[in-house]
Structures are given as C-alpha cells and as structure tokens.
From TrEMBL:
Main subcellular localisation: membrane
Listed SUPFAM superfamilies: P-loop containing nucleoside triphosphate hydrolases
Membrane topology per record: Peripheral membrane protein
Gene Ontology cellular component annotations, sorted alphabetically: plasma membrane
Cellular location(s): Cell membrane
InterPro entries: AAA+_ATPase, ABC_transporter-like_ATP-bd, ABC_transporter-like_CS, ABC_transporter_ATP-binding, DrrA, DrrA1/2-like_C, P-loop_NTPase
Lineage, top ranks: Bacteria, Bacillati, Actinomycetota, Actinomycetes, Propionibacteriales
Organism (species): Microlunatus kandeliicorticis
Annotated keywords: Antibiotic resistance, ATP-binding, Cell membrane, Membrane, Nucleotide-binding, Translocase, Transport
GO biological process, one term: daunorubicin transport
Protein name: ABC-2 type transport system ATP-binding protein
Origin: domain of life: Bacteria
Amino acid sequence: MIRARGLVRTFETRRGREKVSVRAVDGVDLDVDAGEIVGFLGPNGAGKTTTLRILTTLLKPTAGTATVAGHDLAGDPVGVRRSIGYVSQSGLVSSEARAGEEVVDHALLYGISRERAVRRGRELFEQLDLDGMWERQAKKMSGGQRRRLDIAMGLVHDPQLVFLDEPTTGLDPQARANLWTHIGSLRDTHGSTVFLTTHYLDEADALCDRIFVIDHGVIVASDTPDNLKRSVRGDLIELTVQDEQQAEAAARRLAGLDGASEGSTSGVTTSIRVPQAGSALPGLLRSLDADGIALAGVEVRRPTLDDVFLTMTGRSLRDDEAA
Ligand SMILES: Nc1ncnc2c1ncn2[C@@H]1O[C@H](COP(=O)(O)OP(=O)(O)OP(=O)(O)O)[C@@H](O)[C@H]1O
C-alpha cells in the first residue's frame, strides 16, 4: 500500500544570522501492506509530520521515490490524493458549520454524489458514535467528538488508505481509548490501511500492528510492538530502600545477579536489568534480608516501548512527553 525509498526533505532556515539546512527527513524507506495499522512513533521534531506531508503529496521530497495506494507520488499525485484520506493535526473541520454538512461537502469535493455522501456520512456517524450530531455545529462538540468528526471527513470518500497525524493529541484518556477502538474497527470492518503518527507510547502499543520508530529524520527500528519490546533484553527490577547507604548495599547485591546489566542508583532507589526477574527475585529478597536491608518497595517492569527508544537512541521518549 505504501512503498517509499530514500525519502529526504531538507528545509532552509535561519539560526540567528546564519542560514542552515535542516534535514527533517533523512533517507526514509517504508513498506506498508494493505490492512495494516502502522504507527510512526518519535519525539517532537523527529520528522513524522514532514514524512506524512510528503506521502500525502502536500510537500515535495528533496529526494527519494514512493508509491502510495498504487500511484506514483511524483508521476500521479492526483491519483494518490483520490485514493487516500488525510486527517491533519489541526483537523479539517471549521467550527461554524454543521457537522453533517461539513462531511457531505467534503465528499462532494471528491466528485461523490450528494445522495451517496449523505448515506456514507450517516453510516460513519453511527460507527464513530456521533449519532444525533448531524445537525450540531462543530464548535459545540467536545474535543473527542470533533476529532471523530475529523476522522469521518477523512473517510467519507472511502479511501483505501488513511493518514492520521497525531489523532488523539489533546484528548482525555477516556476519549483517546474510545478513538483507538474506532480506529481499530476501521480496519476490521472496512479493511482500511491506517498510517498514524504519535508520540504516545501506549497508543502505538495498543493500536498498531507495526511501528516505525523515527528519530532525527531516520527510522531507527521497525517491527511489531511485541518484537520491539522483546529486542530489549530482560526485565527491570527496581528497589526502594530506607536510606542511601542501604541503596548502595542493595545495588551491590543487584550487580551480583546472573546476567545483570544497566545498573543504576539514584537516592534511595536502585535498579538493574536481568534476563528474568521472576527467577531472580526469591534469592535476591533472601540475600537482602540476610544483609539487614529493609525494602520500602519492589517493582518489576517488563520492557516497554520507551525502553526500546532508549536503547535505540540513548534518550527517553517520556522526557519528551513530559516536556
Ligand atoms: N517548513 C519548515 N521550515 C523549516 N523547518 C521545518 C519546517 N517543517 C518542519 N521543520 C523542521 O523539521 C524537523 C521535523 O519536523 P516535523 O514537524 O516533521 O516533526 P514531527 O516529528 O512531526 O514533530 P511533532 O511531533 O512536534 O509534530 C523539525 O526540526 C522542524 O523544526
């Protein structure tokens, strides 16, 4: 459904008085099959939106080629546009118009008859839990409802492939989870291929069949969420003790565990990665007890996508989320 080779996009900007060239996308290859939900995961400024704008014909690549939904990006941009849906970060919906009208007008742009546009629009409203919203002005809808309306507009012409740029940014956790269900069912009921960008780890994990991790315009990993997590070796054991002296003593015990790596101590907390926390813990707890180390807390963490990102780039995506 998407095949891209060597996509590059540079921007000329100014840093103070100096002219600099930013390589926003720096040699991206992508292969996406029909019916996949694929996530583009990366921190702010990683090049996600720029790649999406290239693939949706909104931006010309500086170099590289791509076929999108069977059409060559450079040779047949109109064919690409007809076959895809695109929901940008800011959304499509103008706030004064009534929701149903917006969706129908959008479909008319694609040369769809009014009758079919209304039928398809009503169907999408039902599927996206927007029943009763047809006559509602977009500005009187909640954030989650508006975002679902954006998605209805992106889908009303029945594209084979839909691009969603950060579909759940700004939504509360419940509205996000609700939208994930809807995006999942698009694929299940329509066989749509979905390509979305996100900087939420849980979103990529819960929703995507496959993830491309992008950093500084370069894809640093691509696989299923499970395989990516499996590529990080082992579980993390984190101990919290009473004081810093005990933390150092506990750290020495942790370092002695079979296959221990990535030990780290900060204040009264010390952690280590081991191949299997379940088999290491009983012996560890006994030896800590024998040393007279009193535990205030024990946590075991299976690898997360954040660990994957950390392993690949040396930085945490969570720092970015908090920013
Ligand atoms: N029109 C532009 N002119 C100059 N630089 C740009 C332009 N568009 C993007 N960039 C730069 O290219 C890089 C990638 O930006 P992009 O918007 O693709 O990142 P992103 O991963 O989508 O980030 P976010 O999660 O914040 O949307 C950034 O350094 C950005 O500042």
